[in-house]
Amino acid sequence: MKIILLEDRYGEVDDVREKRRADTIVFDDEDAARDWSKRPDNNNGTNTATTVNPNDEAGKFFVQYNNLPMGVERVGDRLFVTVPRRRYGIPSTLNYIDLRDTRDRSPALRPYPSLREARSLTSVYRTRADQCGRLWMVDTGLLEIPDNPRQLQPPAIVIYDLATNSQILRYTFKNSDIPAANTPTGLASITIDINGDCEDAYAYVADLTTFGIIVYSLKENDSWRHSHAYFSFNPIAATLDIAGERFQWSDGVFSITLTEPGADGCRTAFFHPMISTEEFSVSTCVLKNRAIRQSRSYFSLYSLIGRRGDASQSTMHGYHESTGTIFFADIGRDAVSCWNTGSLLNPSHVAILARDRQRMSYPSDLHVTGDEVWVMANTLPRFGYSRLDTNEYNFYIYRGNVYELIENTVCAPPRLSRN
């Protein structure tokens, strides 16, 4: 990856850069700021608590240490950054950075659309914008406090109009979409599918915990769930070694990325479980057809595409239409890799584009926006199993140009052109 856009730090030189400020929150709503300043846990408008004892943190508005960014997406001059509520002390789960503000290398997150309105969201992992000026997400509704989780509201798809910064839809999933009490913990990504008509949009929500894909139709305002063996994890790939922590996970289907439409108007949906080194596919014609689940040939409609290589467990991936390239956020090798869909998928056709044991530890999100690849890395395993060193820089956001990244790699199409 060519450019480090943002880090949780100021300056460039170790002996002169400032420490990260733990006492800064940006409010767009003066009333909300005034209300917060009167809270009993607030000390002169600041809160610098960094404890990780949940009993001490309960009820606190802002615990700087606990704000672990997970998702990143650029929409125009705004960079949306999500902070799921996996601990106490997170003021807003959906935030943004104004990219026109270049004064600080580590700008403060601003609650979206405002602190007061952001309170309607409980916990969001990742967002995706569509070509119709809307921002989509899943609100899990779950406060994921270790040993004390609370389902504050039902999990739902939420849509914001980016022109008016207002919430225009909250669709609560049906009971048939959520097969178990722990399902909301796995609703960590959403993919949007539109073919010209903004009202005829579909959302595909991967469920990594109970291994399914939930499909939502905006026109019908209805949802249904698909199940398949390919949505589950591969136990052979379950052992991970990240950020100095060795552990096993069992996350299933995690990310879905779409190609351009074919002659039938449907796209190829590439998907993979996070705990897997394989890639799979299915036509969106299958996903959009709720009745097809009863077909005797249903399971044969899904395909194994190939294997990406050792330690290639991946969170998110994104497709670039002009080059036919898919980019992967590889947690297993602290890297970003690529594969051109015009070639067979095997390790020899996968290129490592950027790799860093520290600065790209656990790339939690990756999104292709135009000709740019955006990546978030957040050292999540150390946060979960040990403790982040607040004297180090744990969170990074990267931006890279698609053509520069794949140039002279196996991912470059035969005639690489920017036109």
CATH superfamily: TolB, C-terminal domain
- Over all CA atoms, what is the radius of gyration? 21 Å
Enumerate how many helices there are, as a single number: 6
Q: Which word captures the global form?
A: globular
Strand order of the largest sheet: 1-28-27-26
Going by helix content, strand content and strand pairing, the class is: mainly beta
Features:
four-stranded antiparallel β-sheet; mainly beta; 6 helices; disordered N terminus; 419 residues
Protein architecture, described:
A hairpin with a 6-residue loop joins strand 12 (189-194) and strand 13 (201-207). Residues 1-23 and 34-51 have low confidence and may be disordered. This protein has six helices and 28 strands. The protein is 8% helix and 36% strand. It has one domain: Neuraminidase. The longest helix has 8 residues, at 30-37. The strands form eight sheets. Strands 1-28-27-26 form a four-stranded antiparallel sheet. The chain is mainly beta. The protein has helices spanning 30-37, 54-57, 115-118, 284-288, 380-385, 402-406, and strands at 3-7, 71-75, 78-82, 94-98, 110-111, 124-129, 134-139, 142-143, 150-151, 156-161, 166-172, 189-194, 201-207, 212-217, 222-226, 239-242, 245-248, 253-258, 268-273, 278-283, 303-307, 314-320, 325-330, 335-340, 350-355, 363-369, 372-377, 396-401. It is globular, with a radius of gyration of 21 Å. Belongs to the major royal jelly protein family. It is found in: Secreted. Pfam families: MRJP. Residues 42-55 have a biased composition (Low complexity). One of its GO terms (cellular component) is extracellular region.
